[in-house]
Write a structure and sequence with these properties.
Largest sheet: 7 strands, antiparallel
Bound molecules: flavin mononucleotide
Shape: globular
CATH superfamily: Electron Transport, Fmn-binding Protein, Chain A
Pfam families: Flavin_Reduct
CATH architecture: Roll
Keywords: Oxidoreductase
Strand content: 35-45%
Radius of gyration: 17 Å
Organism: Bradyrhizobium denitrificans
Number of domains: 1
CATH topology: Pnp Oxidase, Chain A
Number of strands: 12
InterPro entries: Flavin_Rdtase-like_dom, NADH-dep_flavin_reductase, Split_barrel_FMN-bd
CATH class: Mainly Beta
Protein name: Flavin reductase family protein
């Protein structure tokens, strides 16, 4: 039997898909730096390197719509307070410092950073999928911050040994 999900059951089912946590940054038309926590980040293609984020209308949405550029900062496990800050619970010590590289606004402690130019924007309900070609990226070692069942979590689960994962030939993977 299938039925149209209510908001609570959709949220609960969606929350079982574990994700990392990113902060999407941009600059408004007035030059002000903006950013929002987003776990809708996903890679789209390798050639050319392409990603997407799904953003609800708000300050960051406005800035990305206007400038057609955004950066994705993948948070480290220790940076839950930064994730909360950019989701609307401000840090007592104020906005975290952002570096600027090639016009992209970057959190220096992020474990990965992607500078993206919007190549397509798809409006869906009250969100927009901003599909971005990656113009610049960087990464550094560190445990990721994760989000699962509506809770922030530290790190990733136990690794499955290659012998237990033989059914999936790594050579065939695109990512
Ligand atoms: C873990 C987490 C993930 C989130 N992911 C998204 C997302 O992918 N897209 C979105 O529109 N909002 C997402 N949000 C909510 C935004 O971070 C929040 O509404 C933010 O204040 C919007 O900022 P803005 O006013 O600059 O648009 C998420 C919040 C949390 C805590």
């Amino acid at each position: 039997m299938s039925h149209h999900p209510d908001a609570a059951s959709f949220r609960a089912a969606a929350s079982r898909f574990s994700t990392g946590v990113t902060v999407v940054t941009s600059r408004g038309a007035d030059g002000a730096a903006v950013g929002m926590t987003a776990n809708s980040f996903t890679t789209v293609s390798m050639q050319p390197p392409t990603v997407l984020v799904s953003l609800k209308r708000g300050r960051t949405w406005q800035a990305v719509s206007e400038t057609r550029r955004y950066a994705v900062n993948v948070l480290a496990a220790d940076d839950v307070a930064i994730g909360r800050h950019f989701a609307g619970t401000p840090l007592a010590q104020g906005t975290p410092a952002l570096d600027e590289h090639d016009g992209f606004l970057l959190l220096p402690q992020a474990i990965a950073q992607f500078g993206c130019a919007v190549v397509n924007a798809v409006e869906i309900a009250d969100h927009t999928l901003f599909i971005g070609e990656v113009r610049w990226c960087r990464h550094q070692d560190g445990l990721p911050l994760a989000f699962y069942a509506s809770r922030f979590r530290k790190g990733v689960g136990a690794e499955i040994s290659p012998s237990d994962a033989l059914a999936y030939p790594a050579e065939g993977w695109t990512i």
